[in-house]
Amino acid sequence: MSVKLLRVREGDGEREAGPVAKEKVLAGMPQQLTEHFFTNAKKNFFCGIWSSDSGKWTLTYSEDEFCYIIEGEAIVTDADGTAEKVSAGDAFCIPAGFEGTWETIGSVKKFYAIYEE
């Protein structure tokens, strides 16, 4: 069996839209859209495009995530209160165990790749 290259093109993935879970929201009424492109055979690696509009919510990561901001900006704040602004063109990783908040300023779109043990 031959393994084929999988191209990731916006509009070609499986889409899921809805609000950020109410119990996590700290400000606003953020809506999010996930366009999922790939899950590996072990079901522990995923990638796609995620976007949201304005709002702030809590984060608790059990997974490792690579992010590349395509459009917009957000503020990621860790449990110690250290805040970092991320904007279009920024690439970063959020490691498993991270706790803090995500605040979308206006709207933001990111490419994500997630690995979970």
From TrEMBL:
Give start and end of each (S)-ureidoglycine aminohydrolase cupin domain.
41-112
Concerning InterPro entries, the annotation shows:
RmlC-like_jellyroll, RmlC_Cupin_sf, UGlyAH_Cupin_dom
User: Which CDD domains does this entry report, sorted A to Z?
Assistant: cupin_TM1112-like
For this protein, the record's Pfam families field holds: Cupin_3 (PF05899)
Domain of life assignment = Bacteria
Name assigned to this protein? DUF861 domain-containing protein
Native organism is Microbulbifer hydrolyticus
